Amino acid sequence: MPKLRRTAAWLIDFALVVALATGLAVLTFHRISALVTDVPELAAHSGFDLLTSRGDVIDASENLGLSVWNKSVLYVEQAFGLLIVVTFLYQWASLTFLGRTLGKALTGLKVTPRAGRRAALRAAVTTTADVVVYALACVLLIEGQFVLSMLVWALAVAVFFCNALPVLGRNCRSLADRLAGTEVTGLGLDTSGTHRPAVGTYGNAPHGW
User: Fold this and answer.
1) What is the percentage of the chain residues whose pLDDT exceeds 90?
2) pLDDT value of position 171
């Protein structure tokens, strides 16, 4: 049951990340679309380059295309950067001031202790496992680094499971919990791994034992 609550909490928090990513994707699409409006201005600059190109028409045309492409890539990279920053701030602020994210609050869980340094480290590891490495793989793909992008994608999957799989263990602590020295607790959730003996189990034993 505790593991199901941890999974549900993660799904809620990750849904927020997906919603943010969707919003940033729409914003980035509109920013790139707006470049079409700027094409006449870019073409004017390209026309000046054409006049001063001494007949090198191909080079002047390439400069126009590269200008639009480079701006488009920059917009995408900015969106991924903003996604990483907002995700980290969400995790850090939630743990520092509330001791729980929205997902954990809705599932009756909390993170202890919630000291600033521990919260920052846990937020950094969680953000890296859930967002950072995947974002890096996407950026490399856009930059044309296909082989390196695939390697980073594989690394992203490995990092994600290295963080998530320990939750299935006896103490239900993720890699982020272990590195930050925190644990997730809540009503009905015991992460100590030990159980007190029932009252009366040793009640009849001689006092000399």
Assistant:
1) 55
2) 80
The distance of Cα 158 from the centroid of its chain, to the nearest Å, equals 14
Mean pLDDT of 107-121: 88
- Are the beta carbons of 104 and 110 closer than 8 angstroms? yes
Question: What is the Cα–Cα distance from 153 to 149, expressed in whole angstroms?
Answer: 6
What does the block give as tokens for 100?
């729980």
Render the burial of 168-199: b for 16+ CB within 10 Å, e for the rest.
eeeebbbbbbeebebbbbbeebeeeeeeeeee
3-state secondary structure string across the chain: CHHHHHHHHHHHHHHHHHHHHHHHHHHHHHHHHHHHHHHHHHHHHHHHHHHCCCCCHHHHHHHHHHHHHHHHHHHHHHHHHHHHHHHHHHHHHHHHHHCCCHHHHHCCEEEECCCHHHHHHHHHHHHHHHHHHHHHHHHHHHCCCHHHHHHHHHHHHHHHHHHHHHHHCCCCCCHHHHHHCCEEEECCECCCCCCCCCCCCCCCCCCCC
Report CA-CA distances (Å) from 148 to 85, 160, 173, 174: 24, 18, 31, 28
Say yes or no to pLDDT of 182 above 50. Answer: yes
